[in-house]
């Protein structure tokens, strides 16, 4: 299948990618809408929770959607989302290789394929007990020759999505504009040196805000794909960042005027694709938001793989967001410790998931945000069944992480240790310093009188890691 498939019909490929997959012919109207209610993923039923001992690959071991954890159904606590781009669009290409996957889902023309992607998305959400999806404008409909044509394509598919939402109750976690793929944005979008690229980006974003409102999206994301630079020899960094902020203010003003009440998110990421990405990490983005007076409306969408590319742990980025009041949403995935790029793998690291959910619980849970699987199956995992196996892996990992994080908090030893470690800040002196009631001169007098620091206690990292292991392994 992966090679020489061009000699097969697309439908034959889709069929052969899947065991015992028998396809009925699909019919399309002239307008492109798929008349057939054909199941896309034939042969796969709704995934059920079977418990930790199950060896059924198409079952959940830890994700039990309607089980109550911390006072909410797991599905409402975890708020899983499907990433439209990876799941319905990405075809396994890399810089050395052609597609290994067929994502036409039986459609023939570009618009038919777009309709079938919608069918596939809603079927996946249903079968996987996922309640949300996330999208880029260019994921859901083909780009036309002009912005007007692209908008018309989008508007048509958006009607179909909204209809499916009304039928199923499935929701949109967030939408975003793809301002990085088309060559017109080679020098940037909001930070472009040429004003016409900025104008085009603004036009594209406006349409996307309208779509997000139509879908009832809880968030609107900005990932600065081309917002960065390669060399200062050709770059006016100050102007570029001022312009980015101007654009975000316009976005906020327009969306609020249209009644959008959700969150705007900036998604930090270093290194890719430009050498100096302006939104390098959480702390850099927060400093930008503060400088340009955007803290009231913008929060962060923290991605695990981007945290590690920035040289941080995932938990660090989440803590920075939480401590600064901009904890928003999460792109759940993982990178590869041996590779220095954004591999967007489905998350299977139980420690990372546990510590992530620990931060989410401490932040009071998600409000508008959720856990979007910004992750794709590996190039070699090219079958439709692999999509299910990948989501099950990620969802079970985070379900386990939620259970383990709750257990960690209930166990209490780590929180108690941290509280004890900082206990002296609750003494009268500590309180006075925290309240800003003590001057440097007064502290100097105290220091001169105290001899030396005598109350250091062990940080006990190894002990705390043992506690973490014990809790994670004895759920
Ligand atoms: C790319 C980003 C992107 C954003 C949305 O690395 O993760 O997919 O999440 O544009
Ligand atoms: Ca992402
Ligand atoms: Ca990524």
Topology, element by element:
Layout: H1 10-16, E1 48-49, E2 59-60, E3 68-69, E4 72-73, H2 74-78, E5 80-83, H3 84-89, H4 110-128, E6 132-136, H5 137-140, H6 147-168, E7 171-176, H7 195-214, E8 219-222, E9 228-229, H8 237-257, E10 263-266, E11 276-277, H9 282-291, E12 298-303, H10 304-309, H11 314-323, E13 327-331, H12 350-362, E14 371-373, H13 384-411, H14 413-421, H15 428-434, H16 440-449, H17 461-473
Bound molecules: D-xylose (XLS) and calcium ion (CA) (2 copies).
In brief:
The protein is 44% helix and 10% strand. It has 17 helices and 14 strands. The site of one calcium ion has 5 residues, from loops.
| Total count of strands | 14
- How are the strands ordered across the major sheet? 5-6-7-8-10-12-13-14
> Roughly what percent helix?
40-55%
Oligomeric nature of the chains: single chain
**Can you list the ligands bound to this structure?**
D-xylose, calcium ion
> What is the terminal-to-terminal distance?
42 Å
Number of helices: 17
Radius of gyration: 24 Å
Descriptors for this entry?
single chain; 475 residues; alpha/beta; eight-stranded parallel β-barrel; two-stranded parallel ribbon; disordered N terminus; binds D-xylose; binds calcium ion
Notes on the structure:
The longest helix is centred in the last third of the chain and has 28 residues, at 384-411. Strand 13 (327-331), helix 12 and strand 14 (371-373) form a beta-alpha-beta unit. Residues 1-25 and 27-34 have low confidence and may be disordered. This protein is of the alpha/beta class. It has helices at 10-16, 74-78, 84-89, 110-128, 137-140, 147-168, 195-214, 237-257, 282-291, 304-309, 314-323, 350-362, 384-411, 413-421, 428-434, 440-449, 461-473, and strands spanning 48-49, 59-60, 68-69, 72-73, 80-83, 132-136, 171-176, 219-222, 228-229, 263-266, 276-277, 298-303, 327-331, 371-373. It starts with 9 loop residues before the first helix and ends with a helix. The protein has an 8-stranded parallel β-barrel with strand order 5-6-7-8-10-12-13-14, surrounded by 5 helices. It has a two-stranded parallel sheet with strand order 1-2. The chain has a two-stranded antiparallel sheet with strand order 3-4. The chain binds D-xylose and calcium ion (2 copies).
């Amino acid at each position: 299948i992966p090679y020489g498939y061009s000699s097969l019909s697309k439908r034959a490929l889709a069929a052969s990618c899947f065991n015992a997959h028998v396809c009925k012919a699909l019919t399309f109207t002239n307008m492109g809408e798929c008349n057939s209610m054909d199941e896309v993923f034939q042969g796969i039923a709704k995934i059920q929770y079977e418990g930790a001992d199950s060896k059924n690959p198409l079952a959940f071991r830890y994700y039990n959607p309607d089980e109550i954890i911390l006072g909410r159904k797991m599905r409402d606590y975890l708020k899983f989302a499907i990433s439209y781009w990876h799941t319905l669009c990405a075809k396994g290409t890399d810089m050395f290789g052609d597609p290994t996957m067929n994502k036409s889902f039986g459609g023939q023309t570009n618009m038919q394929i777009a309709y079938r992607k919608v069918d596939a998305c809603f079927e996946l959400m249903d079968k996987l007990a996922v309640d949300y999806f996330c999208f880029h404008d260019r994921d859901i409909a083909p780009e036309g020759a002009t912005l007007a044509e692209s908008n018309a394509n989008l508007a048509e598919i958006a009607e179909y999505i909204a209809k499916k939402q009304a039928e199923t109750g499935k929701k949109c976690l967030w939408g975003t504009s793809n301002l990085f793929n088309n060559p017109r944005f080679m020098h940037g979008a909001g930070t472009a040196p040429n004003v016409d690229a900025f104008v085009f980006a603004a036009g594209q974003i406006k349409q996307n805000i309208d779509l997000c409102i139509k879908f009832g999206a809880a968030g609107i994301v900005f990932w600065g794909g081309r917002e960065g630079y390669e060399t200062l020899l050709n770059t006016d960094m100050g102007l570029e960042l001022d312009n980015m902020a101007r654009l975000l203010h316009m976005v906020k003003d327009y969306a609020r005027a249209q009644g959008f009440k959700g969150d705007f998110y900036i998604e930090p990421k270093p290194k890719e694709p430009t050498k100096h990405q302006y939104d390098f990490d959480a702390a850099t983005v927060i400093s930008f938001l503060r400088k340009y007076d955007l803290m009231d409306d913008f929060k962060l969408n923290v991605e695990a793989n981007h945290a590690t590319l920035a040289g941080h742990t995932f938990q660090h980025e989440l803590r920075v967001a939480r401590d600064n009041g901009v904890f928003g949403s999460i792109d759940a995935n993982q990178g590869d410790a041996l590779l220095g790029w954004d591999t967007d793998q489905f998350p299977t690291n139980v420690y990372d998931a546990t510590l992530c959910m620990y931060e989410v619980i401490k932040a009071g849970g998600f409000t508008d945000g959720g856990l979007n699987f910004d992750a794709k199956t590996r190039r070699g995992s090219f079958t439709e069944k692999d999509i299910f196996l990948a989501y099950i892996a990620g969802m079970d990992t985070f379900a386990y992480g939620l259970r383990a994080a709750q257990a960690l908090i209930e166990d209490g030893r780590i929180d108690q240790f941290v509280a004890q470690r900082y206990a002296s800040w609750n003494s009268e002196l500590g309180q006075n310093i925290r309240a800003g009631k003590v001057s440097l001169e007064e502290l100097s007098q105290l220091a001169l009188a105290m001899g030396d620091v005598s109350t250091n206690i062990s940080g006990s990292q190894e002990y705390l890691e043992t506690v973490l292991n014990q809790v994670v392994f004895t759920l």
